[in-house]
Amino acid sequence: MNIEEVLKGITRGAVDVISREELVKKLSSGRKLRVKFGADPSSPDLHIGHSVVLSKLRQFQDLGHTAVLIIGDFTAQIGDPSGKDATRPVLDHETVANNARTYTGQAFKVLDRDKTEIRFNSEWLKPFFASPAAGVSDFVNIAKSVTISQLLEREDFRARMKAGTPISLLEILYPIFQGYDSVAVKADIELGGQDQIFNLLMGRNMQKLSGQEQQAVMTMPLLPGTDGEKKMSKSYGNYVGLNDLPNEMFGKMMSVSDSLMCSYYELLTFEDLAAVKAEHPMEAKKKLAGLITARYHGGEQAQAARAHFEQVFSRKELPENMEIFRAEKAGKLSYLLVAAGLVKGMNEARRLIAQGAVRLDGEKVSADIIFEPKDCVLQVGRRQFRKIEKGA
RNA sequence: GGUUGGGUGACUGAGCGGUCAAAAGUAACGGUCUGUAAAACCGUCGGGCUACGCCCUACGAAGGUUCGAAUCCUUCCCCAACCA
Predict the structure, then answer these.
(1) Rounded to the nearest 5°, which phi and psi values hold at A359?
(2) Which of A13, A77, A166, A290 is most exposed by smallest CB count within 10 Å?
(3) Which residues touch A93 (CB under 8 Å, ≥6 apart)?
(4) Is the minimum distance from the CB of A347 to strand B below 7 Å?
(5) CA A41, CA A46: separation in Å to the nearest integer?
(6) CA–C1' distance A173–B70 (Å)?
(7) What is the pLDDT of residues A356-365, one digit of tens each?
(8) Nearest nucleotide by C1' position to the A352 CA atom
(9) A173-185 and A197-209 helices cross at what angle (nearest 10)?
(10) Which one has a higher pLDDT value, A189 or A18?
(11) Which of chain B's bases lie under 7 Å from a protein CB?
C-alpha cells in the first residue's frame, strides 16, 4: 500500500487534520507511531459515539502503530470544559478508578489490546502540579470553587481584558493538563472528537515548548444521539452503549429516524451510502442494526437479535426467552403486575390496565380482574413480557 | 467584603396565605397510526386506598406566626448577578 492510499484511508471521515503535511511525514517515516487518545473516566459507559474515534485509533493499530490510551484519572478531577455549559462534577478517586476499569474493558471491544499502551495521567500530572504541601485535593478544591466570572470581575483583570492582554491560565488550565499528557507520552498523533480541537492543539503547543516534535492532530465528527438532536451522550440518555445487550442494542438502532440512520451509516460503517439509500429504509435499518450489534456481540448474537426483533415487533409474537414469575395465590391483576416487577406501583398498574396496555396470553384485559394462578403470558406495553407459572 | 435576586417534582420553569400534589414545556410511559420508523394525535405522569371521594409524603434545612403556608417571620446551608 502506498502512502497515498494509507493517507486516504486514515483520514476518511475526519473533520480536521492538522497538518496534513506533518501527518504524511510521520506516516512515511517508517517509524512505529504513538497515537494518543485521552479519555476522562468520568462516565464508565462507552457508547457507539465513542466508537467513532476508537475505530479510527484501531485503524492506526492495524497499520502497526501503537495506541496510547490515556486515562485521565487526574484530569477527571478537574473536568473538561469542552462543549459544556456548566462545570462538571468533580469525581473522587474511587469512582475514577472504577470507571477506568470498566472503561478499558469496553474500549478493548474496539481496540487491539496488544498494540495499546494504557497510561494514567496522574502518573506525571500529580507530581507536576501538586506540591506536597498543597496536595492534590486542596488544589482541586480551590480551582473548583473559584469561578471564572468571579476572577474576571476584578478591576485589574477587566483592565487587562480591555487592553487585550491574555488573562490568567486558570481558564485554560484544562487544555494545559491535557496538552502535557502529549509531552509525557511523546505522542506523534492525537485523535479526538471535533469538540476537542482546542485541547488537541494545546498539546502541540506544549510539545513545542518542551522541544519535542509536534503531534499531528485529527478530529472525528461527533455522533448525533438517538434523538437525532443532541450529540450522543450518556447524560442526555440518547446513547447506544457498547455494553448494551444485543436485543437492546438492535432495538435502539431500529427506533432512530431514517435520516439519522444515514448519518449512522456514514459515521459508523464503511458501507456504500448510495447503495444504502436505494434500499427500503426498513431493510437498511435492520442491516445497520445488525452490523452494529455484530460488531460488539458477534454475528450469532446479531442474528438472534434480529430474529427476536422480527418475532416480537414485526410479527408481534412472543419472544423466545421471558422471565418467569411464579404466581402462588389468586389476587388482583394489578397486584400481580407489581409483584412480577412489571410496574412501579399499584396506581400505575391500574392506569396501565385502564389504558389497555395489559395483555394476558395476547388478550387485552380491560379491568382489574381477579387473577387465578395459571400458566400464561403477561404482557405490558409492547416490550415487557413475563411468563407466569402456577406456583407450587 | 458589600448589594440585590434566588433555591419548586427526572429536567427547564410558573405560583408568592386557602380553589396547590403545585401552571406550562421537555423527557418518560401507555394508546391510535406505522417500517417497534420518524412525525402527528389522544391519555397518563409523588405514593397508597374499601376510589368520580379519602389518606400519607412533598416546594433547600430547622424552627415560628396563622383556623390554614410552597407562599409571611427567624436562623442556618447553598447558588447567581452586580459592586469593591
Answers:
(1) -130, 140
(2) A166
(3) A73
(4) yes
(5) 10
(6) 42
(7) 888 888 888 8
(8) B30
(9) 60
(10) A189
(11) 27-32, 35-39, 43-49, 51, 79-84
